[in-house]
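note to self — DONT lose this again. spent like an hour looking for the file last time. sequence + predicted structure for the chain T wanted, 308 res
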Amino acid sequence: MKKTPEVVKTAAAKKDAVKKAAAKKTAAPAKKTAVKKAAAPAKKVAVKPVKAESPAALVRRARRINRELAEVYPYAHPELDFENPFQLVVATVLSAQTTDLRVNQTTPALFAKYPTPEDLAAANPEEVEEILRPTGFFRAKTKSVIGLSKALVEQFGGEVPGRLEDLVKLPGVGRKTAFVVLGNAFGRPGITVDTHFQRLVRRWQWTAETDPDKIEAAIGALFPKSDWTDLSHHVIWHGRRICHARKPACGACPITPLCPAYGEGETDPEKAKKLLKYEKGGFPGQRLNPPQAYLDAGGKPAPPLGAG
């Protein structure tokens, strides 16, 4: 029987529909796979797991970190220029909320004009303010250094006392400043809990404390008293040069096997090298007149104020 044109059309339409359905079935899995691939999460960088650590293990790890840093920075020293306890206590008070470099660039003019506590105690505040302007908060700092100079003259015969309880009574002098002076001008052990020290000891999980006095007590318990001053230098130097606040140079760090925070910063060795600061990055340190050991190790003195 001969098929009519209408029957032929209907059969062709049915054939096309079957073909389209088959094609749809074949394409469906591919589409599903494509969606899956697009939605796949980005590969995460492996984070070093934090292991439970006994108090004894913490002491061992903390002391080993200090030994490693002592090898990296055998010439670590206070980065404020000073020639006597008076200059150090004044410079440390001025270092609040500014860099040691800026203080070192400013104090030569201050000490040239006011070399003793008696001179600074009798100074015209406006003239002192003008000298201290580059350090920031210069009015408050002027009040502190003139006040502490008067206290030294009136209460201690113009001499900086060598006891913690006496130092903290001076205007502008807290425990941190007192320990800087005791450790570096008098050779009496002390822990300097500045911003770098606070950041690193928490990053290394030596303590979870946030209060400076509690940090001082917690870290002091991990080390013999004789280590305290040099420990402070090692930690602060490492914080300024490698273990930075925003972008630690993890790939250039000598203590990565001991650090639970490894991976927070740049881990690629070549990229990490570019983040290094001060002498390890080829730049001068903070002091205009650094110790000879620092210069012998290849360190460079900082430029004076106004130098190009």
